[in-house]
Amino acid sequence: MDAIKERLNAIPSHMDYKGQKLAEQIFQIIIIVFAVVGFAWGYVCEQFVQTVYILVAGFILSCLLTLPPWPIYRRHPLPWQKPRDDSKEVSQKESKKTGGKKKEKSK
């Protein structure tokens, strides 16, 4: 069971912003092309169902091409900053508050 989880976690499941934009453009182009072709073919055949079939085929094709995170959509990863060490920050803040010296209690 753990091996299956590891394999599933190893599958990349992200897209970068440019990849999302490309996927959206591909999706829109496929839908528009299939809608125009489907409308023309349905008009020629005089059957609206042909238009619907062609549009559904375009939708399925566009989903197969754009929904999975294919490598084409992961070409521009974001440059993440390295994590900061919080323990160093806490000690620096404490030293700034005390002025770098320990305060003596007054009597």
UniProtKB/TrEMBL annotation:
GO terms for biological process: protein targeting to ER; signal peptide processing. Residues 98-107 have a biased composition (Basic residues). Residues 82-97 have a biased composition (Basic and acidic residues). Keywords: Endoplasmic reticulum, Membrane, Transmembrane, Transmembrane helix. It is found in: Endoplasmic reticulum membrane. Its main location: endoplasmic reticulum. One of its GO terms (cellular component) is signal peptidase complex. Residues 76-107 are annotated as: Disordered. The keyword Cell membrane does not apply. Coiled coil: none annotated. Pfam families: SPC12 (PF06645). It is a multi-pass membrane protein. The chain crosses the membrane at residues 26-44, 50-73. Belongs to the SPCS1 family. Component of the signal peptidase complex paralog A (SPC-A) composed of a catalytic subunit SEC11A and three accessory subunits SPCS1, SPCS2 and SPCS3. Component of the signal peptidase complex paralog C (SPC-C) composed of a catalytic subunit SEC11C and three accessory subunits SPCS1, SPCS2 and SPCS3. Within the complex, interacts with SPCS2 and SPCS3. The complex induces a local thinning of the ER membrane which is used to measure the length of the signal peptide (SP) h-region of protein substrates. This ensures the selectivity of the complex towards h-regions shorter than 18-20 amino acids. Component of the signal peptidase complex (SPC) which catalyzes the cleavage of N-terminal signal sequences from nascent proteins as they are translocated into the lumen of the endoplasmic reticulum. Dispensable for SPC enzymatic activity. This is Signal peptidase complex subunit 1. The lineage of its organism: Eukaryota, Metazoa, Chordata, Cephalochordata, Leptocardii. The gene is SPCS1.
